[in-house]
């Protein structure tokens, strides 16, 4: 499949999600509104100013659930944008072909990344035709990240704006805007953040529906992926057992009334692919967790999303 075909597949995922009506849950309906809002940002507030088809826009990708959702929506919007260009062109559609072979993408890699995440990034880089620039010097703190992005800009001077899957519920995310310059201590470029209003539940609703592969760490109870030395499965997802005195009783409600059954039942590709294949792994460390935790998508409380992120440096965020 070429990138031109992939963007069409993503468009089909988004459109079919938007068409779900019968028996749709409140979460699904809310997520449909979130999809429409993000689509509007891309088509009305971003693409008229920064052209996504000539390398002015790049995408910050780290294989996490948020940027995967945003990537699917971005690819979907690219198809719509391309269609609009064709329709307003003086040449017939048959004389056009999708102009990008690869999508400009940047990943600032820390040395301590989970192997399962690394394999997932490699696999999705091929699947979504990302021209992934990978910088391996990053030591995990935001100031260094700025330096690494400067290197990326030096090597890719066409880049004017970078898309980021940050949400309002992330640390320091509450005052961010959909379109804004970087802070003064960062290299200067436009930050495009069209996922800010999405809640955790919206992320799982769309991702589980999409039928796309999901990073297997989430299947084993992780909910927010940092480095290998500072991330554990989310304690709020630990299953009930005799030894678990701190069992999170709210989990019983989620287990008895799983919020995304509708998404899984209606998932766009369940007809030819079982859901469990989407987060399968051969990573022995993960399998050894032995199903002690429920999958990450059993946690929909935004305030608990980062409970598996351990602070190593006491004086740092
Ligand atoms: P996540 O929830 O995992 O990350 C949120 C999003 O950030 C991801 O969806 C992805 O799009 C991107 N991202 C995270 N980690 C990486 C990575 N290793 N490689 C590539 N993309 C990644 N902070 C400031 O204080 N001022 C700034 O001006 C500023 N500009 C930024 C510009 C860009 C392009 C990026 C990626 C980050 C910037 N940041 C800036 C930092 C940002 O606000 C977050 O602190 C940072 O993205 C980590 O987010 P998180 O811990 O919430 O992790
Ligand atoms: Mg996130």
Chain-wise SSE layout:
Elements: H1 3-19, H2 26-46, E1 57-60, H3 65-87, E2 103-110, H4 115-127, E3 130-138, H5 142-155, E4 161-163, E5 179-181, E6 190-192, H6 200-210, H7 216-219, H8 250-256, H9 261-266, H10 284-287
Parallel strand pairs: 1-2, 1-4, 2-3, 4-6
Antiparallel strand pairs: 5-6
Helix pairs in contact: 1-3, 2-3, 2-6, 3-6
Residues 60-62, 64, 66-67, 106-108, 142, 149, 162, 164-166, 170, 182-183, 186, 191 line the site of flavin-adenine dinucleotide.
Strand content: 5-15%
Terminal CA distance: 42 Å
Give helix % range: 25-40%
| Oligomeric state as shown | single chain
Look at the structure and give the mean pLDDT: 92
Unique bound compounds: flavin-adenine dinucleotide, magnesium ion
Biggest sheet overview: 6 strands, mixed
How many extended strands?
6
SSE sequence, one letter per element: HHEHEHEHEEEHHHHH
Number of helical runs?
Answer: 10
Structural class: alpha/beta
Poorly predicted regions are none
Strand order of the largest sheet: 3-2-1-4-6-5
Rg for CA atoms: 20 Å
Principal-axes geometry comes out as globular
Q: What does the model show?
A:
The protein has 317 residues and is an alpha/beta fold. Helices cover 38% and strands 9% of the residues. The protein has ten helices and six strands; from the N terminus they run ααβαβαβαβββααααα. The protein has helices at residues 3-19, 26-46, 65-87, 115-127, 142-155, 200-210, 216-219, 250-256, 261-266, 284-287, and strands spanning 57-60, 103-110, 130-138, 161-163, 179-181, 190-192. The protein has a six-stranded mixed sheet with strand order 3-2-1-4-6-5, sandwiched between helices. The longest helix has 23 residues, at 65-87. The site of flavin-adenine dinucleotide has 20 residues, from helix 3, strand 2 and helix 5.
